[in-house]
Inverse folding.
């Protein structure tokens, strides 16, 4: 699932499409789930990919869309804590005026290298949430539960890793 | 005997008769119906058996055609495409002209109407889902005022579809129609030796051969199941890949900031690459044609390879 902003970035959108990436749009997700396929969701969205190095491993707000889809299609949510990616391309600042001028969400100040950090993935137990008529407040609470589960998995990964590389 | 057969044939009016698509449709239908051909651009000679008129639908004399013939069906293909004329003329012809056509059609008891729309009405938006079905909102108007007439024509046709069911309105939204004789933006680009591309963007596109589109129109008109349908292939290809397959040299145009390609497109004034269509060279608008295929048993005959081979052969 590609963040909605990525197709607007020259070359990146095409590259991701060529890898099989599909826009993270609710219509696309619903069609994929209806076919019994699996989706990888990054519920922080653009808030997560534009994070600065000093905010690493602090989860930003999650969108509620993935929870609605999971509930509608009775799909299990498997929380995954990813540790290591934040050290591969650390961003130290965001040039907001340039981002505004270019019409992009952020322009990170980073080093022109990708560090070979080791990535640790920790998978949690699948979470199930029943469908039916549920208030948005309840959906947000359910999203928080997923966020909490991911947070714990990230902490686990951070405490267990012996070194960055 | 021949005269008797001719008399038994139903009269149908086909607009946009000077266009390549309309002529393909006329070829397929001329034995089954008595065709009355009209076009606002020119009076085309289509044979002694086909009365042909050059007339603007907004002119008073247009109604005389309905007085003269007992028209029972209308195939409305005479739509000025976005690269033709200016915005106001397109609005007058596509929206006001079509409204006049539909009003007259009701007055004279037309029993069946088919309208050719375009996939442009969905708008090329970065957030478009991978497959767009007919229930998707028509977002083209929010992108550019230059496509307002296309969206308005759609909305007008849909009003007539629901409000006047006796007109049996079928609205077809085809993907890119290409092939011999087609002069729209994309066909112009595929025919060119050098074609502009937005650097870093190569959206997926669908291409439907003009023969297949003519078949689709004939099918939809013959089966007469009113509604709104996408008409598209189940195969798609990236724009830049299509250009290469057609033997075009790709000329990259800087794509950011967005004002830069818009300015360049205005200055270069390339027929197939107008500034208001730039988003269609940036983001995909891929149609889900399954509803039409299912309702009418439609299956395009031409593959992408065959289509591109034609454009490549043109250049050698």
């Amino acid at each position: 699932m590609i963040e909605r902003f990525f197709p607007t970035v020259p070359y990146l959108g095409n590259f991701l499409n060529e890898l099989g990436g599909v826009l993270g749009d609710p219509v696309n997700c619903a069609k994929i789930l209806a076919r019994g396929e699996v989706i990888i969701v990054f519920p922080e969205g653009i808030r997560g990919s534009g994070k600065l190095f000093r905010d690493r491993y602090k989860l930003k707000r999650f969108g509620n869309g993935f929870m609605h889809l999971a509930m509608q299609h009775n799909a299990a949510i498997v929380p995954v804590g990813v540790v290591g990616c934040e050290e591969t391309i650390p961003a130290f600042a965001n040039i907001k005026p340039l981002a505004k001028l270019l019409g992009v969400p952020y322009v990170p100040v980073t080093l022109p290298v990708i560090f070979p950090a080791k990535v640790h993935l920790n998978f949690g137990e699948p979470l199930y949430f029943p469908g039916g008529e549920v208030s948005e407040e309840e959906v947000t609470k359910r999203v928080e539960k997923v966020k909490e589960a991911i947070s714990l998995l990230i902490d686990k990964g951070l405490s267990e890793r012996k070194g960055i590389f | 005997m021949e005269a008797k057969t001719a008399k038994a044939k139903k009269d149908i009016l086909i607009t946009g008769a000077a266009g390549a698509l309309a002529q393909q449709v006329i070829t397929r239908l001329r034995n089954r119906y008595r065709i009355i051909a009209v076009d606002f651009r020119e009076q085309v000679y289509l044979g002694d058996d086909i009365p042909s008129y050059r007339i603007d639908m907004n002119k008073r004399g247009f109604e005389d055609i309905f007085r003269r013939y007992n028209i029972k069906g209308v195939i409305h293909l005479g739509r000025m495409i976005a690269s033709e004329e200016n915005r106001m003329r397109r609005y007058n012809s596509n929206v006001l002209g079509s409204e006049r056509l539909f009003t007259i059609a009701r007055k004279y008891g037309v029993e069946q109407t088919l309208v050719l729309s375009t996939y442009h009405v969905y708008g090329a938006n970065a957030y478009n889902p991978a497959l767009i079905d007919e229930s998707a909102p028509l977002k083209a108007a929010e992108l550019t005022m230059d496509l307002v007439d296309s969206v308005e024509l759609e909305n007008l046709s849909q009003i007539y579809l629901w409000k006047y069911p006796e007109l049996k309105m079928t609205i077809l939204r085809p993907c890119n129609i290409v092939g011999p004789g087609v002069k729209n933006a994309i066909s112009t680009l595929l025919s060119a030796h050098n074609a502009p591309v937005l650097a870093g963007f190569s959206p997926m596109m669908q291409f439907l051969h003009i023969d297949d589109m003519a078949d689709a129109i004939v099918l939809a008109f013959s089966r007469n199941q009113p509604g709104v349908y996408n008409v598209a292939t189940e195969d798609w290809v990236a724009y830049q890949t299509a250009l290469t397959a057609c033997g075009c040299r790709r000329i990259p145009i800087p794509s950011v900031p967005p004002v830069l390609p818009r300015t360049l497109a205005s200055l270069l004034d390339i027929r197939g690459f107008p500034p208001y269509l730039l988003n269609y060279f940036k983001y995909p608008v891929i149609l889900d044609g399954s509803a039409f295929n299912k309702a009418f048993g439609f299956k395009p005959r031409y593959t992408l390879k065959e289509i591109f081979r034609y454009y490549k052969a043109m250049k050698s």
